[in-house]
Specification:
Number of helices: 26
Largest sheet: 6 strands, antiparallel
Strand order of the largest sheet: 2-3-1-9-8-10
Radius of gyration: 24 Å
Shape: globular
Structural class: alpha+beta
Length: about 650
């Protein structure tokens, strides 16, 4: 890729074109109780929904009451919610803007009809509105789905916001001087004159340390992330926030009736998968060869639901090879999407879009997503994937759990495993501040957990609270730019049952194996794989995992054999030495990057040289630094 393309993509800090198939759903709103010399709400709300207008086909909708100081709106090309929003109740006293979907809603709808409620649509938002009108906010913990919503009560002059248990979709807000502004994207909040795009030093420290921001912070000063499983009330007296759900752990017990537990889990999971296949949309299922997506594939009654499998990756990658074996064994067909030269030609556009759509909170490592999803959207509306499966069998933590004996070791291990290892690349003055702030963030996160749970349960909470709510949800929003997404492993009823399951059944993928072998026993012929997972085996991290492999006994040999033959979905180490070589240099060696004062120019230059000469593998560092620089150009330079 030539230097001209890179210059064209990044010479101007104007927001990039993102109409590469975008279906980004988003809701926005303002409550201004002061109304003294404030900006006209209709102009601000229009600017907010326009800031999330990522496609020429988007529908921009909003409603304004200047006298009450309330404005609500949304911007999307709807997949799930097709009716005009805001939606209103019968007498117009309540209105709602809604993002996402809920499952098992037919019973609730029938209940509401018996209570005399009339429905103008088949929208989830309207069902939620009437449920809360009838039952109050106590019904929110029972809403099984992935959603954000905001309800304005005209009579009490109160705004109520809520999201799902896992914070599936990002949700942000700003509050100052009697004005409350919220949106699904930070760039929409920045349209308000009361909010300036300033860097948050603590958010920057988190991102450059871990690759995501912990707690309720963001990269932007005075803009907070809505905490997962929360309800927020906004009224003239201020804000009231409460968490409506936390994982409920049972004491560590032995499974006396192993078969009964596994049968209950299998039944709950199949019901979740069935819910995820429902609707009129055309559904496909991700199939990576890993146990998570394999369990979903096995749980489907393919005679009743002839869904297609889809697999992404470079040619002959392990995911595609394993998916082909699974499809042969199940006598099913699938679609395979492979990386070609057009991906590299459009990489500056994809990288810039990833950073822009995630408000700087997603790494360019995921730039393959818009490339794949842009093709996928031409054939399907919904993608069902295995997100959350690593939580069910504790895969993410079991590799280093044996080494953790107390809270200090837990904190140290988390910091070590999550750390991006940018030491030496950061300017000395900033490096000390970065480490101080990131340690504070990690301590605050662990301190927020209730102390009565075990160390392993704290790791589960950290996964749900930080990894899902902060590291993964930006990727969900990127996916929703193109098509709807569903994740059966995050079904409320299934997760509740998992949290009651004896610990020994959550080890060694026992739940996954039972679901697979019960429903598709012939898949036993396909060897176990680690396909679909991201293993950060850069040379700076291998030393962290080597003791783990040695500790795991005989299983380490299977894992090491897998690594020897493993071909990843993408190959950024090689790409940064080949087709993206010029792109890397023109971003990280640019004078604007150096003049910010964050990085050591000579160290950056040596890192790039060592990587591109094949002396060392620095692809993860390069990705993090480029992502941070693009965030500065798109959001802070432009201010």
């Amino acid at each position: 890729m030539g230097s001209l393309l890179a210059r064209l993509a990044f010479a101007n800090p104007e927001p990039p074109r993102t109409d590469i198939g975008s279906k980004m759903p988003g809701i926005v709103g303002i409550v201004d109780f002061s109304r003294e010399g404030g900006e006209p709400l209709h102009l601000t709300i229009q600017a907010m929904v326009s800031a999330m207008n990522h496609s020429r086909d988007f529908r921009l909708e909003f409603s304004v009451d200047e006298n009450e100081g309330i404005a609500l709106g949304r911007s999307d090309l709807p997949v799930f919610n097709k009716e005009k929003q805001p939606l209103f109740n019968e007498d117009g006293s309540l209105s709602i803007v809604y993002q996402g979907e809920i499952f098992d809603y037919s019973d609730q709808k029938n209940f509401l009809k018996k209570r005399g409620h009339c429905f103008q649509s088949n929208e989830w938002g309207e069902i939620v509105l009437h449920l809360i009108e009838e039952e109050g906010e106590d019904i929110i913990p029972d809403l099984n789905g992935a959603f954000n919503f905001a309800i304005w009560d005209k009579r009490s002059q109160k705004l109520t916001l809520a999201n799902d248990r896992y914070g599936t979709y990002p949700f942000f807000y700003h509050f100052s001087d009697g004005k409350f502004v919220f949106a699904s994207e930070i760039k929409a909040i920045l349209q308000s004159k009361s909010v300036a795009p300033e860097r948050n030093p603590r958010g920057v420290a988190d991102w450059l340390s871990f690759g995501f921001v912990l707690g309720e912070k963001t990269l932007f000063k005075n803009i907070q992330r809505f905490p997962l499983a929360s309800i927020l009330h906004v009224h003239r007296g201020g804000l009231q926030k409460k968490v409506y759900w936390k994982p409920s752990f049972t004491p560590v017990i032995e499974a006396k009736n192993k078969k009964d537990w596994l049968e209950r889990l299998d039944s709950a999971f199949k019901k979740s998968v069935l819910n995820n296949l429902s609707g009129e949309e055309k559904v496909c299922v991700a199939l990576t060869g890993g146990l998570d997506t394999r369990a979903i594939w096995a749980a489907i009654d393919h005679k009743k639901y002839p869904v297609s499998a889809i697999t992404f990756g470079i040619e002959e990658c392990s995911d595609i090879q394993l998916a082909e074996k699974i499809l042969r064994e199940t006598k099913a067909s699938g679609d395979f999407f492979t990386i070609n030269n057009s991906f590299f030609l459009r990489f500056p556009e994809y990288a810039q879009s990833i950073v822009y759509l995630s408000d700087g909170h997603q790494s360019i490592q995921t730039a393959v997503q818009p490339f794949f999803y842009d093709s996928l959207r031409e054939h399907y509306s919904i993608l069902v994937d295995g997100g959350g499966g690593e939580f069910i069998d504790r895969f993410w933590l079991k590799h280093y759990a044996p080494f953790i004996k107390d809270d200090d070791q837990l904190r140290n291990r988390l910091f070590s495993v999550l750390n991006l290892s940018l030491d030496g690349l950061i300017c000395k003055d900033f490096a000390s501040e970065l480490k101080k702030f990131s340690w504070i963030s990690l301590n605050e996160s662990l301190a927020s957990m209730y102390s009565q749970v075990s160390l392993r349960d704290k790791m589960d909470i950290f996964y749900l609270q930080e990894m899902c709510g902060h590291a993964y949800s930006p990727g969900m929003n990127i996916l929703s730019c193109f098509l709807g997404s569903r994740q059966p492993f995050f079904d409320y009823h299934f997760v509740d049952l998992v949290l009651q399951t004896p610990i020994e059944l959550r080890e060694k993928a026992a739940i996954h194996y039972h679901i697979i072998l019960k429903n598709m026993p012939h898949l036993k012929k396909v060897n176990r794989s680690y396909g679909g997972i991201v293993i950060p085996f850069t040379e700076n991290r291998i030393s962290k995992y080597l003791p783990i492999l040695l500790h795991r006994g005989a299983e380490r040999f299977q894992f090491l054999r897998f690594l020897d033959s493993f071909k990843p979905v993408e190959d950024y180490p090689a790409w940064f030495r080949g087709p993206l070589k010029t792109f890397v240099k023109e971003i990280l060696l640019d004078s604007r990057t150096h003049h910010r004062g964050y990085f050591e120019p000579l160290a950056i230059e040596k890192m790039i040289s060592d990587h591109q000469q094949g002396k060392q593998n620095h692809w993860s560092r390069i990705s993090a630094l480029i992502s941070f620089e693009l965030c500065n150009r798109l959001f802070f330079d432009h201010s």
